[in-house]
Write a structure and sequence with these properties.
Blueprint lengths: L1 H12 L4 E4 L4 E4 L5 H11 L9 E2 L3 H5 L7 H11 L4 E6 L15 E5 L4 H10 L3 E2 L19 H4 L4 E2 L11 E4 L6 E4 L8
Parallel strand pairs: 1-7, 3-5, 4-8
Antiparallel strand pairs: 1-2, 3-6, 4-5, 8-9
Amino acid sequence: MNDQVDETVRILNQGGIVIFPTDTAFGIGCRIDSKETIQKLFKLRKRPESQAVPILVSDLEMAKKYIQEVPEDVINKLINPYWPGALTIVLKANKEKVVSLIRGGGETIGVRMPNHPTTLEIIKKVGVPVLGPSANFHGEKTPYEFKDLDKRLISLVDYVVDGKCSIKQASTVIDCSKAPWNILRQGAIKVNI
């Protein structure tokens, strides 16, 4: 498994695009700071540029560099109890570090710390967040198992990390960028807000 991690890190650091398992579904991504690769990723997935993509982090400290601030109540009520896990938290982005395309042209960004040891190790070794939309063409079925991955998509990326998704369900998405918080998607984690 370590060879796979090292190879993935090498490819991401060279501006590559990889498919990888998370706790929820298979994701497809690149480094957050690789502008050309981000554009390539959007084209490849046929995703409208107005639709933001989530980023995956290895810890809260990494997340803090890419968002304006993480309110204490978000840390206490959401991050501490549910990270790592299937919870995507939407907060105001640090626009100097998060290009407009990732934000879908908006002010916010969805951040998640996946509960998957391989993926967490990859992100930690890359040292910056990795984009984490699901590994499918826009509007197609979300791949929860390796066999669900579209062979056409596999042929367009630089590397595929083998592995399993433990939850096989989309993450819950909560917008915490304004009060009151708003559940945008009810997924694997049931949160009372």
